[in-house]
Structures are given as structure tokens and as C-alpha cells.
From TrEMBL:
Class in the EC hierarchy, top level: ligase
Catalytic reaction list: tRNA(Phe) + L-phenylalanine + ATP = L-phenylalanyl-tRNA(Phe) + AMP + diphosphate + H(+)
EC number: 6.1.1.20
Organism: Fonticula alba (Slime mold)
GO BP annotations listed: phenylalanyl-tRNA aminoacylation
Shown stretch of the complete protein: 48 to 480 of 667
GO MF annotation terms: ATP binding; phenylalanine-tRNA ligase activity; tRNA binding
This protein's UniProt keywords: Aminoacyl-tRNA synthetase, ATP-binding, Ligase, Nucleotide-binding, Protein biosynthesis
The name this protein goes by in its record: phenylalanine--tRNA ligase
Annotated segments matching region Disordered: 183-203, 388-433
């Protein structure tokens, strides 16, 4: 049912027989959460920056600054944050030396519009095309798609950033590429250490440059002094490969994958002048790449407990990050995610006034008989108030501490001081009943 929509919305030739993209996934394409920022000059209510856009922006700035420090300005640093999510499976897998039988290629693991066209499973899918266009220093920010379970830490759509940089080698310093030793295919998980095609000097130079730039990115995201460690890893498209972890709030957390790009990828795809230059002298350059997940970083950094929250359009979520300024990464420390009710935002003020006296418990019984167990007294300021309404606190989902017909002020127990003024018993977020 989605196939015709893919054609009309994205110009994608979907094949109804093989397309496994569901309407729910279709709706998520192009939401562009990583780009949701207030239009220039219009900050304030209704114009919050999405937490994924905040993290993207900080990474972009940190990398740009690090590159400006380390290069002679010869390399143009290019940012691609809006590339179409539909790619050829070759670009997503083969160009990156992913093995022919790798499970991620299957229709059960990835979303395909047809056998020729899929939703990218990682931002690395753009490496080969950008190298072909002659780019040698770039950052990609992209929504990526993987068929997966749905729980607090998995979602079939998430966001990644990919950084890639090529360096001119200096043969005088022993930095060389031996093209006869280029890998023909995937090396397998025990292919660690330097690539045979790169001299030790070349590999070390690229790795040192990678470490400097990845460190700069993580220093932009985490408080000064946050420990960082590099753990050996395996990706088919890099060697050596690393997973980088940060020690944050008492735990080592894996935040990023990276490595020295397989020389075969550069050799096959890099066209220094762009287009189809016949014999690209790629034996004179080597490079690195990193990839990171924006959701994971935002969850760790802001204490967001559930990946599904990123899709919320609820101001109770979006406005929580208003104190962050990507130009001042220290402002991230001001924000700690505060849970809110999982029920939709809806204001219902109830105010009433009675000349004769009404006992609290009479009121609670009315509330209970109308609202049932969904109604909660909400957090109350006064202990006295808590004791008074404690018995009226219906069993309610613990995830909704602020929900209740009795507002946060504990109004129900506060008697009107003057009989002339109405007792305000609610300034409340009530249940949808
Ligand atoms: N694409 C990898 C992933 O999605 C991350 C990565 C990118 C690793 C670039 C190394 C180099 O897990």
C-alpha cells in the first residue's frame, strides 16, 4: 500500500511485490528531527530546538573547529544533512565491503522499496558517492532505518552522523600505499591491526588524525575532563577499527564507531576532481571515518530514558532543552530530562464555589466516582495536604506523577480564605476520560 506513495512523494520506483516499508515507517521519512531548529531570529515558545538537532549542531561545530585547527584550509569541509534516505544496496553494503551473505542485507533486517532501492541502514551509505564527487572532508547527518524491536532503546528509525576525511600522504616520511595489497573483500572479524596495503607510517598518521578529531567531537559534547577510551572493534569498511567509550555519570558508555578507512574503498571510489577521472591517484591519500548515533548520545547526555520520546511533538518534551545553546556546550549541563505524563497534554481547569462547607472527603468521592483510578492527586506541596489526600490517591501509572485533577498546588485542601473567593481546586492536567 506504500509503494504508490513512495513514487508520488519521493520519486522512488517501489515494487509492490518486494516493498516492505510500512505506513508507519513511511510517515517517519522526512520528519528531519535532526534539523528541527527555530528559524533564525525567532526563538521563544513554539520554536524549540529538537535535542537531536542540538547534538548535531554541537558535533558539527566541534568538528569544524578541529578541522580548521589541523588543516591548512585546503580541504573544503562539507556538511550534508539532507541527502535522500533511499540508496542503492550497493552503496549501503557492497561499496563498504560488507560480505555478500551479511544478515543486515536481508529483507527481515532492512527496509527495501525494491531489490534495487532501500532505506539506508547507516550514514556510511553515502561514503562512496561523496568520494566520487571529489569530497575528501565531510560530515553527513541522516535518518537511518533498521527493522528492529520496539522498546525503550530500539526504534526502527534513528539518526546518525558520519565524519570522513582523507589525508595526503607524505612518501618521504614512509607514508605509502601498496595497491597490490588492497583487500579484495571483507577480512573477517579477526582482521585487526593495520591494513597490509598501508605502511605503518601511513596507518599511524591517519589513526592519529582520527583520534584527534574524534576526541575534539567528544570534548564538545561532554563536560571537560570526561574520560574517553578506545576499544578495538570490527567494521568491514575500516581497519583498524575502534569503538569509543566515554565515562559519564559512573558508567562507560559506547558512543561511536570509527577507524582507518579500508584503502580499497578510497581506491575504488575517490575521484579527486569529481566525476569520472580515469586513473585517480588515490594511492597518495588515505583516510578515516567515524559514525555515531544521535539518539544514544542525546539519551546519555540529557538522561532521556526512552528513544520513542524523540518523536514526540509535545511541548512538555521539546521545551525541556530550551536552555541549551549549541554555541555554548556547557549549557547542556543545565538540562536533565524530567519525566512527564504519558497522557496527552490537556488543560482542564475546574473551579467551584460553595457557600456551605464541603468536606475534602466528599469532594474526593466525587472525583473518584467520575475519574476512576486514572485520577491522581499529583505532587503536593504541604505534608498536611499529602496526608489529607493520600487516601484519595488512586492507583495510577507511576509514569504520570503530575497527572491529576488536583493540581500541583494542592488546591483542594486549601480552603478559601474568604468566602467571597472561589476555591480553586484545579489547575490541572487531567486524564483524557
Ligand atoms: N556505520 C557504522 C555503524 O552504523 C559506524 C561506523 C562508521 C564505523 C564509520 C566505522 C566508520 O555502526
Amino acid at each position: 500500500e506504500v509503494a504508490p506513495l513512495l513514487r508520488s512523494s519521493f520519486g522512488v520506483e517501489a515494487d509492490p511485490a518486494t516493498c516492505n516499508i510500512t505506513p508507519t515507517i513511511f510517515e517517519r521519512i522526512s520528519r528531519g528531527l535532526h534539523l528541527l531548529e527555530p528559524p533564525a531570529g525567532s526563538p521563544g515558545p513554539g520554536y524549540s530546538t529538537h535535542p537531536l538537532a542540538l547534538i548535531r549542531s554541537i558535533i558539527q561545530r566541534a568538528l569544524l573547529e578541529a578541522i580548521a585547527r589541523s588543516s591548512d584550509g585546503k580541504d573544503n569541509f562539507a556538511v550534508f544533512d539532507n541527502l535522500p534516505p533511499f540508496v542503492r544496496p550497493e552503496a549501503n553494503f557492497d561499496h563498504l565491503l560488507v560480505a555478500p551473505g551479511h544478515p543486515s542485507r536481508s529483507f527481515t533486517d532492512s527496509y527495501y522499496a525494491s531489490t534495487e532501492c532501500m532505506l539506508r541502514t547507516h550514514s556510511s551509505a553515502h561514503q562512496s558517492e561523496l568520494l566520487r564527487q571529489g569530497h575528501r572532508n565531510f560530515l553527513v547527518a541522516a535518518d537511518v532505518y533498521r527493522r528492529d524491536e520496539v522498546d525503550a532503546s530500539h526504534y526502527p528509525v534513528f539518526h546518525q552522523m558520519e565524519g570522513m576525511r582523507l589525508l595526503d600522504l607524505d612518501p618521504a616520511a614512509g607514508q605509502t600505499v601498496d595497491r597490490a595489497l588492497l583487500p579484495q573483500g571483507e577480512g573477517g572479524p579477526d582482521a585487526v591491526g593495520r591494513q597490509p596495503a598501508l605502511s605503518q607510517e601511513a596507518s599511524d598518521r591517519v589513526e592519529a588524525d582520527l583520534r584527534a578529531h574524534v576526541t575534539a567531537v567528544l570534548e564538545g559534547l561532554f563536560p571537560p575532563g570526561t574520560p574517553i577510551r578506545w576499544v578495538d572493534a570490527y567494521f568491514p569498511f575500516t581497519r583498524p577499527s575502534f569503538e569509543v567509550e566515554v565515562f559519564f555519570q559512573g558508567e562507560w558508555l559506547e558512543v561511536l564507531g570509527c577507524g582507518v578507512t579500508q584503502q580499497a574503498i578510497i581506491d575504488e571510489h575517490y575521484r579527486p576532481a569529481g566525476g569520472a577521472s580515469p586513473d585517480a591517484p588515490s594511492g597518495t591519500v588515505a583516510g578515516w571515518a567515524f559514525g555515531l548515533g544521535l539518539e544514544r548520545l542525546a539519551m546519555v547526555r540529557f538522561g532521556i530514558p526512552d528513544i520513542r520520546l524523540f518523536w514526540s511533538r509535545d511541548p512538555r518534551f521539546l521545551t525541556q532543552f530550551d536552555a541549551c545553546d549549541p554555541a555554548q556546550p556547557s549549557t547542556l549541563d543545565k538540562v536533565k530530562f524530567a519525566p512527564f505524563s504519558k497522557y496527552p497534554l490537556c488543560y482542564k481547569d475546574v473551579a467551584f464555589w460553595r457557600a456551605d462547607s464541603l468536606h475534602d472527603n466528599d469532594f474526593f468521592d466525587v472525583v473518584r466516582s467520575v475519574g476512576g483510578d486514572l485520577v491522581d492527586s499529583g505532587p503536593l506541596r504541604a505534608t498536611k495536604a499529602k496526608a489529607a489526600v493520600g487516601q484519595a490517591t488512586a492507583r495510577s501509572p507511576s509514569a504520570s506523577p503530575r497527572m491529576g485533577v488536583l493540581g500541583a498546588g494542592g488546591g483542594a485542601t486549601r480552603r478559601p480564605t474568604s468566602l467571597g473567593s472561589p476555591a480553586r481546586v484545579g489547575n490541572s492536567r487531567s486524564s483524557p476520560t
